[in-house]
Specification:
OB fold (Dihydrolipoamide Acetyltransferase, E2P), binds adenosine-5'-triphosphate, 2 domains, six-stranded mixed β-sheet, alpha+beta, 24% helix, Rossmann fold, five-stranded antiparallel β-sheet, single chain
Length: 366
């Protein structure tokens, strides 16, 4: 069952998937189609159902309703439970804990799934060598897990997963136990592995930067549902809900409540945008990206007074956060900027809002 060889458009198809734990519904009617070779990142806040969805894909959890198909074959369903078990769905799973066998060497750990799959000795040895070299851990082959670092253990866990050449790779926050520098290094490494193996990958993280750098496709989950699914750039440019608009992107985008007043949409008494942008609504939320909010006065641009909160220098500019009442607003200052916390500063809105949302969160299309 090789997703690429089959030429099938969808390597993974999820239909009306529901998972209940007693009275609690963790996954609520999810529909997703993942094209062969995609790197899908499931992202969302803690408790939104990412791991539960991944565990159902892995065959470790059975759906309450709905269906999961890999390359056209149903592997789990509400009616049938786990039809193809974890070991028989040609999918490899990498967890945040490495779960290596402590009594086996690195080479032994990598060979283990091949033994279970009854690969002949010669083919097995060749594959172990190949994978050791591919992950640059040849020198560690005869060591035991306790004799190597956490980062090296993670490499071994990945090597063990890709050794049997699965057509689907499933990752559950695999980098969360690594330090910041190693995380960035392993991110590139995982992308290289994805390109080299061509395996359709599903990757769970709550880190939106990780999501935006690695993904070909992103599904933003919120409260058990897919809030939006698409290419990272489309989600950034065209968020369909305030949740997606403020969850993705660094620094996070600003949302300002505004009401219709004559020809304008106003925040307090300040006119920010033409009323036509609200369609027929009287109250809306205006989305401004940090780069569209400038610290200081800008000729012709509406401005608001805010209390300075904090500043962080980024690539020759400064990201400034300030409070307007209880509302946090992030803008940019040229060069290096600082002020005393609580000091009044002015924020200018140099463009019309990027998007307008209803007070209930959905986007109002112009
Ligand atoms: N076995 C279980 N029994 C009962 N409730 C569960 C079980 N597993 C998960 N849940 C609940 O389902 C919800 C989703 O959990 P899940 O682990 O999928 O979230 P997550 O998005 O992966 O969160 P995190 O980022 O914190 O790992 C949570 O509210 C969790 O408490």
């Amino acid at each position: 069952m090789n997703a690429l060889a089959s030429g099938a458009a969808d390597a993974i198809k999820i239909r009306n998937l529901v998972k209940r734990f007693g009275a609690f519904t963790a996954v609520k009617d999810i529909d997703l189609s993942v094209p062969a070779g995609a790197f899908l990142v499931l992202v969302g806040p803690s408790g939104c159902g990412k791991s539960t969805l991944l565990r159902m894909l892995a065959g470790l959890e059975s759906p309450s309703e709905g269906e999961i198909a890999f390359v056209g074959q149903t592997v789990s369903s509400g009616a049938g439970g786990v039809i193809a078990d974890a070991g028989r769905r040609n999918a490899g799973l990498v967890f945040q804990s490495y779960a290596l066998w402590p009594h086996m060497t690195v080479a032994g750990n990598i060979a283990w799934p091949l033994k279970v799959a009854k690969w002949p000795r010669e083919k097995r040895e060749k594959r172990v060598k190949e994978v050791l070299a591919f992950l640059s851990i040849d020198a560690l082959a005869e060591r035991y897990p306790a004799e190597i670092s956490g980062g090296q253990q993670q490499r071994v866990a990945i090597a063990r997963t890709i050794a049997p050449e699965p057509s689907i790779l499933l990752f559950d926050e695999p980098l969360s136990n690594l330090d910041a520098k190693l995380r960035i290094e392993m991110r590139s490494e995982l992308m290289r592995i994805h390109r080299a193996t061509g395996a359709t990958s599903v990757y769970v993280t709550h880190d939106q930067v990780e999501a935006m750098t690695m993904a070909t496709h992103v599904a933003v989950l919120n409260n058990g549902r897919v809030e939006q699914f698409g290419k990272p750039i489309d989600l950034l440019r065209n968020p369909e809900t305030t949740f997606v608009a403020t969850f993705l992107g660094t620094p996070p985008a600003n949302l300002l409540p505004a009401r219709r007043s004559g020809e304008n949409l106003v925040f307090g008494e300040t006119a920010l945008a033409p009323a036509a942008m609200a369609a027929n609504r009287d109250e809306v939320q205006l989305l401004y990206r940090a780069e569209d909010v400038r610290v200081g006065a800008v000729a012709g641009a509406p401005s608001l007074t805010a209390r300075f909160a904090e500043a962080a220098p980024i690539a020759g500019r400064t990201m400034v956060t300030a409070m307007i009442g209880d509302l946090r607003v992030t803008g940019m200052a040229g060069g290096y900027f600082t002020a005393t916390p609580g000091e009044p500063i002015s924020l200018s809105f140099i463009r019309t809002p990027d998007a307008v949302f209803a007070t209930t969160g959905e986007r109002i299309h112009q």
